[in-house]
Amino acid sequence: MSSAFYPATSMPDSDWWQVLWPNPADTMASVAIEPGTPLIVDLCCGDGLFTGALARLALQVIAIDLDPKMIACASANLAELGAKNCEFVLGDAYDLAAVIDQPVDLVLMANTFHGVPEKGRLAKAVAAALKPDGRFIVINWHRRPREETTVLGQPRGPGTGLRMEPRDVAAAVHPASLELTRLVELPPYHYAAIFMKTSA
């Protein structure tokens, strides 16, 4: 989503972002997203870096972002890949349950949760959109000083104060009946926190 809403979550420059995430398909495999998943939401999809990998796994992908430029960019990128199973929605993550008209198997939120001002509200929106036993996957920067997370010789990522440990993410989303079931390291600087909805 646009940085006007979520601090330090605007789309990074593609030069170092591609270096940091050279193979999105491998990243999706690392977090155990199964081929044939019926419906996945790429929440705050940005330019669609992970949307393309999700499109190869899911029967249907809905990519959502608040920035119309990002939606246009993601749509164009997926068209280049020949993906036919993606829908692109201009919308607010807080309104997820209203934007999606059917229960969702999995919601992915990559590199954005750290900047969400009302994390509990966002978690409740995700939980409301998920099927029973649906999953919420948060990919986040580790809480390391920004000067230590360098790519192409420069410090990258959100400010140190915005970064979250997995336990902090879990504390934010647990009240929405989302239980942390697995942590996956995504070197060099990220982790994935995988949550499951624990009530209908």
Structural description of this entry:
There is one protein chain. The protein has 200 residues and is α/β, with parallel strands linked by helices. Helices cover 28% and strands 30% of the residues. It is globular, with a radius of gyration of 15 Å. The two termini are 28 Å apart.
Task: Lay out the secondary structure.
Layout: H1 14-20, H2 24-30, E1 37-43, H3 51-55, E2 58-65, H4 68-81, E3 86-90, H5 96-99, E4 104-110, H6 119-129, E5 130-141, E6 150-151, E7 154-155, H7 166-173, E8 178-186, E9 190-197
Parallel strand pairs: 1-2, 1-4, 2-3, 4-5
Antiparallel strand pairs: 5-9, 6-7, 8-9
Decide which structural class fits the backbone: alpha/beta
Radius of gyration: 15 Å
Q: Secondary-structure element sequence?
A: HHEHEHEHEHEEEHEE
Low-confidence runs of at least 5 consecutive residues: none
The termini sit apart by 28 Å
- Proportion of residues in extended strands: 25-35%
What is the averaged pLDDT score? 92
* Main β-sheet description: 7 strands, mixed
- Strands ordered across the widest β-sheet: 3-2-1-4-5-9-8
Helix content: 25-40%
Task: Tally the helices.
Answer: 7
Question: Total strand count, please?
Answer: 9
Shape: globular
Index terms:
200 residues; alpha/beta; 7-stranded mixed beta sheet; two-stranded antiparallel sheet; 7 helices; 9 strands; globular
In short:
The chain has helices at residues 14-20, 24-30, 51-55, 68-81, 96-99, 119-129, 166-173; strands spanning 37-43, 58-65, 86-90, 104-110, 130-141, 150-151, 154-155, 178-186, 190-197. The chain has 200 residues and is of the alpha/beta class.
